[in-house]
Backbone:
């Protein structure tokens, strides 16, 4: 297989793009978002796991790249969410759609805290999970997955982050995820760890140690 010339990340989120460009900064390849690649696809994320949903997105975008003549592209896609043990793993793969996609996270967070009422401190364990799927130009699949362990707090705290960060408490740091400096959060987060694992898997294709 010839050395790939471009990595397409199946996202429109600028924060994710900044993170992948930083982690893979030494790759001799252009890293672009779907939008920057001129790709628009409607994907039905009907998988039963984070990884399945990631591959559904990656395959759809890879197919579009091939149709447009970009047969040398590496395509990455991610799926992530919050898993709360006391809630049977909810909201899980439905994290973005929990209580409706357009429902503000302040309402979603309040609902989770309400559902956790009466749950003992040592039973409030939770984690953010990120699964990253990769489709290589020759159709080969690569994958990486990582978690960011913590617990569900009793209130919302912090001005940083987004989504469920304000209710995600980090016992080893004594603060909420939304109270972390963004650079520190990216260093320890589920997505940052999963991206670094994927970076290590892709490094060989670019003769990078």
Residues:
């Amino acid at each position: 297989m010839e050395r790939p010339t471009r990595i397409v990340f199946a996202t429109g989120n600028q924060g994710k793009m900044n993170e992948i460009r930083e982690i893979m900064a030494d790759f001799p390849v252009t890293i672009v978002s779907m939008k920057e690649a001129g790709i628009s696809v409607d994907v039905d994320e009907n998988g039963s796991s984070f990884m399945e949903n990631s591959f559904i997105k990656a395959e759809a975008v890879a197919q579009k790249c091939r149709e447009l003549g970009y047969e040398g592209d590496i395509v990455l896609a991610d799926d992530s969410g919050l898993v709360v043990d006391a809630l049977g793993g909810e909201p899980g793969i439905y994290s973005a759609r929990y209580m409706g996609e357009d429902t503000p996270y302040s309402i979603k967070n309040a609902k989770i805290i309400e559902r956790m009422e009466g749950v003992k401190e040592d039973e409030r364990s939770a984690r953010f999970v990120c699964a990253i799927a990769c489709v290589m130009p020759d159709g080969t699949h690569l994958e990486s997955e990582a978690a960011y362990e913590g617990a569900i707090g009793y209130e919302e705290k912090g001005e940083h982050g987004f989504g469920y960060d304000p209710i995600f408490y980090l016992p080893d740091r004594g603060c909420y995820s939304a109270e972390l400096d963004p650079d520190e959060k990216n260093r320890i987060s589920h997505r940052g760890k999963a991206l670094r694992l994927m970076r290590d898997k892709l490094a060989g294709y670019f003769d990078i140690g």
Observations:
- Strands lie at 6-9, 30-33, 73-84, 125-135, 141-152, 168-170, 175-176.
